[in-house]
């Protein structure tokens, strides 16, 4: 008789659909320097984390979510894979970043001040024609924090944040990125099929709806995304719609999906 899995979460492992398109859309996650750090915000069941860890055996992923149950599920699913050295490269923590911000062990106040001073010194040296020999300071870890991360990924996460909290949430992402670091963004676009399916009474704001489970869902246009990220200091690198027609052959239905793809950089 087949043994029943000891945890209900194990039944879901085979059902996780890895977001393998991430490495194609964001190849920097593969080509980055050794031991680069990624912060996956709103990790869910780990569907975004797994392809990142598979695609780069040297990358380190920090992942957070505002649900303890979801974190436990992600832990079991990710650790059940055959990913190289996953125990040492995958770190989970509880965080509702839109309301509490990220913990100080990502980057402490003294390091932020140090980064600012170094940037000022670098700007002065450039103006005076002095060669820069301190470029490695940004990658050093100190005893009180990890010195910031190289990437922040917001994959279908920001749309669940109340609209009035989005700007402060993005500022938090900006604060933990190293200068020159990238924010990788993908989320629901205007007129995605899920938006068109919402009933009018579920609307709670401008392009903002309430799901049956009490979570929110916002649908972005390009200008809104640009204003949000550039408004807190990011540099726009890529910003475009991604439109896909998905066909459910079993039900004989076609679905029009609209997502927003973007890359933003913290000034270096």
TrEMBL record:
Matches recorded under InterPro entries: METTL2/6/8-like, SAM-dependent_MTases_sf
Domain of life assignment: Eukaryota
CDD domains attached to this UniProt entry: AdoMet_MTases (cd02440)
Enzyme class: transferase
Keywords, sorted A to Z: Methyltransferase, Transferase
Gene3D superfamilies in the cross-refs: Vaccinia Virus protein VP39
One example GO MF annotation: S-adenosylmethionine-dependent methyltransferase activity
Gene Ontology terms describing biological process: methylation
EC number: 2.1.1.-
Role played: S-adenosyl-L-methionine-dependent methyltransferase.
PANTHER family named among the record's database cross-references: METHYLTRANSFERASE-RELATED (PTHR22809), TRNA N(3)-METHYLCYTIDINE METHYLTRANSFERASE (PTHR22809:SF14)
Family: Belongs to the methyltransferase superfamily. METL family.
Protein known as: tRNA N(3)-methylcytidine methyltransferase
């Amino acid at each position: 008789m087949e043994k029943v899995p000891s945890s209900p979460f194990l039944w879901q492992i085979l059902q996780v659909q890895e977001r393998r398109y991430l490495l194609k859309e964001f190849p920097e996650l593969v080509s980055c320097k050794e031991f680069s750090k990624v912060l996956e915000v709103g990790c869910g069941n780990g569907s975004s984390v797994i392809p990142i860890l598979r695609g780069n055996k040297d990358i380190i992923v920090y992942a957070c979510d505002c649900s303890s149950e979801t974190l436990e599920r992600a832990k079991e699913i990710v650790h059940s894979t055959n990913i190289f050295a996953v125990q040492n490269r995958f770190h989970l923590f509880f965080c509702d970043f839109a309301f509490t911000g990220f913990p100080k062990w990502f980057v402490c106040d003294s390091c932020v001040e140090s980064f600012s001073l170094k940037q000022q010194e670098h700007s002065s040296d450039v103006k005076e024609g002095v060669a820069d020999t301190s470029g490695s300071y940004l990658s050093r870890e100190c005893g009180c924090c990890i010195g910031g991360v190289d990437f922040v990924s917001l994959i279908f996460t920001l749309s669940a944040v109340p609209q009035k909290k989005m700007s402060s949430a993005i500022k938090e992402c900006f604060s933990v990125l190293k200068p020159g670091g990238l924010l990788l963004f993908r989320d629901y676009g205007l007129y995605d099929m899920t938006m068109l399916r919402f009933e009018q009474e579920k609307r709670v704001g401008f392009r903002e709806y309430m799901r049956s489970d009490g979570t929110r869902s916002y649908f972005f246009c390009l200008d809104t995304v640009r204003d949000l990220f550039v408004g807190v200091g990011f540099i726009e690198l890529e910003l475009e719609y991604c439109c896909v027609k998905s066909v459910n052959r079993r039900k004989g239905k076609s679905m029009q999906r609209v997502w927003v793809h973007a890359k933003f950089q913290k000034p270096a």
